[in-house]
């Protein structure tokens, strides 16, 4: 099932101006309006949040806006610059999916089919996308659905920052949205309102022929595109300096073995292009243009720069089964959307030294199947607080030589959060006699401790007096656990004196 995400930047012109020209734009607390010409009149074409909250609206004459809101900042709109910046933004968004295009005047469209698993699912992907834009000073909303039209409508008219329309539920989700959600021109929307049509459902329930006769074919086409009855291909944006190879076929192809054969040929051609530039691929996008103009895509990534034809071909061919060739594929394009310098490496003879095991190939296969973010290893952090003494790093990140101290053993499994337990112990320094965890009571047979851990007062003032006493305990079944008391057992300012289970020894 095809999935498409639409990103809407409701204040793109004003947000872009404040982000790129801070010296020209007024402060954020000053209302801002961008104006353009409508015939002989100067009217508002973009508003920031403060101006909209003050009651101004798009299309309002500039003189009226200034009269209603003294102190209003008025600057000239730059639609050409906005459009060019939107194209650059689409190129940046290629990191989320191989098929991204600008959706003028204030949005992007992203074909996320087969790419969402690399970002921990659609919800996590939308959240990450919106948060990245918000952090850059660009207000953003996003929606994902089965079609471009449905995703576009959900992002702009559903009233939430992130909207996920379930597969096959596009018609029901659009039924209650206003007719403007169909991407119609303002005149058509106004005429529909005059006739009493308020929602998409009102229009969709009417016979098609009278609507076509009255409004032309555009209304019916937009309905069919939103509901998936008519395809709406996305023409992906490409960087001008992108390393890319292309193969067109006189007759459409569709057999998996044929696709795999030409994939290998494209990889060989791409590596030949990368070699004189001294580059290796970190991310490859293989795009298939079908006879119906729909674009299917495969994306694979590598943990290190690679120019090995066999290795890259294998990664791409592992994903061929996800491609729907439809009635045939006319064109295949392979692009290195992320490439990094790849220097020469000295080969070491096994007679001189034992060659190091190369795990990069295995890591790449696993990362492309389950997602790069789900493949990691742990590394130590200089901290006495157990939950802060470990961090996740990439599977092939270099070892910096750091290690955990071995004064006291640490459990092989540390719980994500310490879990409270019921227990009984003699204060202040004795281990518990028994404890109840997750409804099961365990009698303590052996114990070692306490190991006192103080709070990091130099990081957090609230931890100036806090302390924990950790114990290693073993129950009757031979299972070993890591318990701690919050506090020193004597002074209430050091903690609540409650007990928690923090880890399990293997």
Automatic annotation (TrEMBL):
The keyword DNA damage applies. It holds the Pfam family IMS. The keyword DNA damage applies. One of its GO terms (biological process) is DNA repair. Keywords: DNA damage. InterPro entries: DNA/RNA_pol_sf, DUF6504, Rev_trsase/Diguanyl_cyclase, SulA_CellDiv_inhibitor, UmuC. Transmembrane segments: none annotated. Residues 31-158 form the UmuC domain. Belongs to the DNA polymerase type-Y family. This is DNA polymerase Y family protein. It comes from Plantimonas leprariae.
